[in-house]
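Standup notes, structure subgroup. Blocker cleared on the zinc ion input:
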Amino acid sequence: MTTRTQATHFPPDRSDAFRASADAPLSRSQLTDLAIELRREITRLERSLASDGSSPELDSYRRALRRIDEGTYGVCIACGGEISFDRLQVMPATQWCVRCAR
Ligand SMILES: [Zn+2]
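Run returned:
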C-alpha cells in the first residue's frame, strides 16, 4: 500500500498589515510611558549593582533614555523606520524594528 504524503508548504506571512502600525510615530504619551519604564529599569539595575557599577544592560537603557531626549528614540538604526510601540513596551532599549531584528 502506497501512501502519498502531501507536502503542505505555507509561504511565510509577508503581509504588510504590521507595517502600518510599525510606521506610526510614537505619540507624546507613549514616549512618556516608555521613559517611565526605562527609568524604572535603570533604577532597578542600579540597585542591583554596586554604587558605581555598570552593565551592558544598564548602558543600553541609559542610551535609550538619552535618545528620547534627543528625539531619535524609536527609530530603527538599520532601516530608519519607526519601531512599533508594542515592541518598545516589551524591549524599551531596542534599536531595531521587528523586521531588522530577524
Ligand atoms: Zn528596521
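Discussed briefly. The pocket of zinc ion is lined by residues 76, 78-79, 81, 96-97, 99-100 (CB under 6 Å).
Next: hand off to the docking folks.
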